[in-house]
Amino acid sequence: MPNATFYLAQEGSPQATVTGLIKYTVFLAQHFVKQGAKVYINANDKDQAETIAEALWQVEPSDFIGHNLVGEGPKYGTSIEIGHHGVKPLWNRQLVINLAENNTTFANKFNEVVDFVPCEEKAKQQARERYKIYRQAGYQLQTIAIENG
């Protein structure tokens, strides 16, 4: 059964900001790749995808993991591929980290989905809608509060 995990940002936490959420996404992507997953990061748009790619370049050299934007990189991809609405991963990925506000048409293409519930009310409502879509698609759902620190 596929799984979807929603990470809940806490008011006043670093992850409650756009920059903090991108840093947390980099942390999660590194974590999942170290466990052997091929990760797709679904950004809100091309600008955010490029920002995430840049954040992945800014890690310590010992923490660096190969990554590329969709359409760039080696033929069979890298451990982390970054895209946005309107583009698709070049090849099969096990896990998607979703930063897009309302694009969930990919839900049935991944065994594992990571999504976020931001603090802002409109964004929370969009997350609730994505939650419903995952549930209707047959995903086993869980929520995890992001620990500060």
From TrEMBL:
Q: Name one GO molecular function term.
A: DNA-directed DNA polymerase activity
Query: What UniProt keywords apply to this chain's record, in alphabetical order?
Result: Nucleotidyltransferase, Transferase
Query: Which InterPro entries does the UniProt entry name for this protein?
Result: DNA_pol3_chi (IPR007459), PolIII_chi_sf (IPR036768)
Recorded superkingdom: Bacteria
The record ties this protein, via SUPFAM superfamilies, to: DNA polymerase III chi subunit
Q: Is Transferase one of the keywords UniProt gives this record?
A: yes
Top EC category: transferase
Supply the EC number(s).
2.7.7.7
Query: Which named protein is this?
Result: DNA polymerase III subunit chi
